[in-house]
Design a protein that fits this description.
alpha+beta; globular; 30% strand; 2 helices; 2 domains; single chain
């Protein structure tokens, strides 16, 4: 299943749960369901405009290049780990964002709105 299909399926399931709660007249359940869905879902962050970002096999530029992201994408951040210090549009940082199993991007190119961790540390 493609990532877009998985996201659409998750969104549909959450929407169905919210609609069912609304029909049952349970406004508190709706708020709880929405909050739970948000906490279970991984937030996506935009890559800097005009940047085709390299995805690496680890937290540094010496790791294998896995792929290059297209312009205008947003990435999920599953976890973060320290690695090579990189300078990008959003400053200089040694944080690397895990966007998929064994795939990392430099946090300095991702607009997280923070200079620090926005996700748990990778183990």
């Amino acid at each position: 299943m493609a990532l877009e299909e998985a996201e659409a399926t998750t969104a549909t399931t959450v929407t169905e749960e919210v609609e069912a709660a609304q029909e049952a007249g349970a406004s508190e359940e709706i708020e709880g369901t929405a909050a739970a869905a948000e906490s279970l879902g991984v937030r996506r962050y935009p890559v800097a405009p005009g940047v085709r970002l390299n995805v690496r096999g680890g937290p540094g530029t010496s790791y294998r290049l896995i792929r290059v992201l297209t312009y205008g994408v947003s990435v999920p951040i599953n976890c973060q780990k320290p690695g090579e210090r990189v300078t990008g549009p959003y400053g200089t940082s040694n944080l690397w964002d895990n966007i998929a199993n064994g795939e990392y991007v430099a946090d300095a190119y991702v607009n997280t709105g923070s200079d620090g961790y926005v996700a748990v540390r990778c183990s």
